[in-house]
Amino acid sequence: MRIILLGTPGGGKGTQAKLICEHYGIPHISTGDIFRRKIKEGTTEGKEISTYTEKGQLVPDRLTIGLVDERLKNDDCQKGFLLDGFPRDKKQAEALDQIMKAKNEQINFVFLIDVPKEIIVERIMGRRVCPKCGESYHIKYNPPKVTGECDVCGTPLIHRADDQEEIILDRLTIYNQTTEPILEFYRNKGILHKIKGDGGIQDIFSQIVTILDGAK
After folding, report:
1. Annotation-wise, does 187 bind a ligand?
2. How many other CB atoms are found less than 10 A from the CB of residue 151?
3. Measured between alpha carbons, how far is 94 from 189 in angstroms, rounded to an integer?
4. Where is the Adenylate kinase active site lid domain positioned along the sequence (predicted)?
5. 16/195 Cα distance (integer angstroms)
6. 187 in catalytic set
7. Is 126 assigned a ligand-binding role in the annotation?
8. What are the residues whose beta carbons fall under 8 Å from the beta carbon of 36, sequence distance 6 or more?
């Protein structure tokens, strides 16, 4: 199964991606993870990526699409994968369509985790992240075992400067504007599934599993 997982910042997309991938034994492909790995390896691509990320800018499509295409050619993707953070606009969705056609494959499921705005604000403002390994926590819903420390590497967690209400609302507006064309693109293909995302983690996961297992 080849899956795309969409959702607003703070909508719980990352948590669901991990659960789905563990349950079905498919790789979790995140553009953020790809970027961080390239930067850490010090590759030419990584150096170029860092010039954008250090300024808070989006990595250009030319680079992003190429890296996703490269990743999807790995052996672990032959039986399926889950894309998280890609595509982020219609142009990338169309590029992914061409990548799939070249492999004689297609995306099977696109899930949108739909969460009310007020819940998203609460989730993001309570979010804490590890600046070293990228693990994410929440002071209420998913706290670390030791307050203020990453469970994975022990690094002190941070509250990102952009995790403030006014900034969050601006980000949601931009997200909705760029995502609607993607939703329409996959709605027309008949593979878009809207998941009610205001429940608990297991409730959201159960909705997704019901759809995936029902299609077998």
Report:
1. no
2. 14
3. 12
4. 127-162
5. 11
6. no
7. no
8. 134
CA distances from 75 to 65, 78, 109, 118 (A): 18, 6, 21, 41
Give the integer Cα–Cα distance in Å for 143 and 137.
6
Number of domains in the chain: 1
153 is in an annotated binding site: yes
Which contiguous run of DSSP H or E holds residue 193? strand 192-196
Name the phi and psi angles at 164, rounded to 5. Answer: -120, 150
Annotated binding residue at 87?
Answer: yes
Q: Which of 2, 71, 123, 127 is catalytic?
A: 127
**Residue 60 in domain:** yes
* Inside any domain, residue 150: no
Half-sphere exposure of 17 (CA within 13 A, CB side): 25
Task: Tell me whether residue 37 is one of the annotated catalytic residues.
Answer: no
Q: How many whole angstroms separate alpha carbon 193 and alpha carbon 211?
A: 9
**So what's the pLDDT on residue 216?**
65
Low-confidence ranges of the chain (pLDDT < 70): 216
What pLDDT sits at residue 125?
Answer: 86
Given the residues 37, 90, 171, 187, select the one marked as catalytic: 171
pTM listed for this prediction: 0.81
